[in-house]
Amino acid sequence: MDTPRIADAARALRHIFVRDLMLEMRIGVYTDERVAPQRVRVNIDLGVEDDGARAGSRGPIGRDEIGRVVDYAAIAAATRRIAGEGHIRLVETFAERIAELCLRDGRVHVARIRVEKLDVMADAGSVGVEIERRRG
Q1: Angle at 6 between CA 84 and CA 82, to 5 degrees
Q2: CA 118: distance to chain centroid?
Q3: Domain 13-134 has CATH 3.40.50.720
Q4: Res. 109: pLDDT tops 70
Q5: If exposure means fewest CB atoms within 10 Å of the residue's CB, which of 38, 110, 111, 117 is most exposed?
Q6: What pLDDT is stored for residue 125 in this prediction?
Q7: Which residues have C-beta within 8 Å of that of residue 36, sequence separation ≥ 6?
Q8: Domain layout of the chain by residue ranges
Q9: Which pLDDT score, from 0 to 100, does residue 63 have?
């Protein structure tokens, strides 16, 4: 399934993403889902301020610094922490917590989060939710 583009030079947004983050976590409303962790796949897409688009097609010169970008490794680590904090009943709640975390960074304008439970239905590859939240 194709999702609409987030990167957009006209809006000065770059697309930062984390693909197929695989987690084992306690999630679900049913009693049998509370017994053992479940496999969950998380995809995170962020529309982030692109100072290179504002500066022109060549981008800012001499700004090859981690501090000026949203760190996808930190986003992944924070997502793992949320998953490990304890049982979450709904995939929707998990997705909302991830989006909220991402939007705390003022450079993030759009957060699209997809959470999939992988072992719920024998005849389906996954079930889950995708949300999109925007700043302001």
Answers
A1: 5
A2: 17
A3: no
A4: yes
A5: 38
A6: 93
A7: 26
A8: 13-134
A9: 64
Percent of the chain exceeding pLDDT 70 equals 89
Lowest-confidence pick of 7-16, 46-55, 121-130: 46-55
H/E run at residue 130: strand 127-134
Of 42, 58, 52, the residue nearest 97 (C-alpha) = 42
Closest C-alpha among 45, 125, 28, 131 to residue 83: 28
The one-character DSSP state at 39 is E
Residue 58 corresponds to which tokens in the numbers above? 């060549």
Contact 27, 39 (CB under 8 A): no
Predicted model pTM = 0.89
Average pLDDT, the chain: 90
With beta carbons less than 8 A apart as the criterion, state whether 103 and 48 touch.
no
- State both tokens at 64: 């090859």
pLDDT of amino acid 3: 63
DSSP state of 114: E
